[in-house]
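REVIEWER CHECKLIST
Item 1: Sequence provided? yes
Item 2: Single chain? yes
Item 3: Sequence as submitted:
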Amino acid sequence: MILSDTEITALATEAAMITPFISALVRTRRDERRVLSYGLSSYGYDLRLSPREFYTFQPLREGNTDHHAIVDPKDFNPAHLTPTPLHNTPEGDSYFILPAHSYGLGVAVEHLALPADITALFIGKSTYARCFTGDTKVKLVDGDYSFLDLIKREENGEELWGYGVKEGKIGIQRLYAPRLIENSEVVEVVLDNNISIRCTGDHAFLMRDGTRKQAQNLLPDDSLHAIYDCHSHGYSAIYDPVYASTLPTKDRTASMQPVHRMVATKVYGSSGLHVHHKDGNRSNNHPNNLELMSAAEHAVLHNQEHQHHLRGGTRFAELYREDAGFRAHISARLHSEESKRKAAMNTRWWKESDENKLRLAEARNKRWAQLGAKEKQAAVMARIRTRQDVTEETVTQALLQTGTIRGAAKLLNVDRTAFRRMPHIIQSFKEGKLRANHKVREVRPVEGVHPTYCLTAETGNFALAAGVFVNNCGVIANTTPGEAGWHGHLTLEFSNSSSSPCRIYTNEGIVQALFFRGAPCATCYQTRAGKYQDQPERVITARI
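Item 4: Structure as written out by the authors:
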């Protein structure tokens, strides 16, 4: 059973379970400057970080080589830890700096003395690990999954692969350690696609212009860095609108990438081989479901899977191998002037040539001259006006996804004349100024406190199923258990998963302690003389 504030207070005052003990949650200093909260909360206690010492992990070289020495947890070399200087601000705050992608050790101010029937769990505060409610879905290469689903998948030994933005371009990345952070107050960010995201107010979102903004500071019509789902030749693909905006209009289809190829390139490198989905599901692009093979192997495999191709394919192969006349016929067809002319007409230079434009104009004029053409077009326009789903947003996305007006009309299943209602969008597209955005509709507070979760990403950001990118947790305090009967100052372990150095403030809240009561154990930490008993207020490394 988790202890409430009343029970924690009784144990702190009568059994010195927490010393010094702050009987209320402190949020401001005497000069009314806000601090990271510490002290007693409704069902826990927020411990502070001591300013006495802090160490960061530094890799060691093996002699004069460029190789890093292996870290042995059974024989840890203290030289891996470097003392970190304490910094002070003009306002009186003190802090340590934890470098990007690094690991550090600190110690708690409070001394704890856990009774034989009390076990504690120490978890990070959301101030450092900004997070989401558990039902929030993350976009992975094999589907959209909530944080609760991700935790189960990782517990089952599965690797998690999602999307991240690096140097302005969307790519594939590993996602690690989905986890519960703490109970937090949250806000709800409502997007213009009617999807809502619930997260702590200080969680950073990636903006379309490359900056970051906290959820609580987002404004209506703010444009977020978006990721769009689409399809390419029957395969799942993603469209990167920000990268597309850097390309000429005619080249924007390059920003629509088949996911299976992105994953294969990330995991296996650029091999030029075909990528096969083992289970036949083209939406399941997890690396475990992808297999590289040659074009010939891939064709044979699919011919075997689809028997309706087998007879014709086998018969053609037999004729080509055994019948010289058939081989000559096929060769002549492939290399004929007519075949060359048709191939040339499909190339870009032909499509953009004056000759082709003249040919298209003549064909267009001929169609308009036909009897009833204008009446037929009027009927088409009347039918288009009933399509409520053809909006500026859907037309914008279709234009940027396909790269052409004709392609956008085909994708939306409308005639191109439907776009006459939106001349400013068409003009912007032709001028290369069209932009696709997921925009913020509103941000509103959510009542109560909620369990919040986050994860770690290689790029420092990851994509949500809502179609936007958010920062991952910054400083993470590793979840640590406190065994019944243990006494001492808690050594705290931190990792900075972000791409920037981070301040860790001292004498302010750093981790939340949750206390649980059970039946007294037969052998508690004190009676078995555990090796970490009575730790002083200094960093203690692992002991064997």
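Item 5: Key structural point noted by reviewer: The two ends are 32 Å apart (CA to CA).
Item 6: Recommendation: ____
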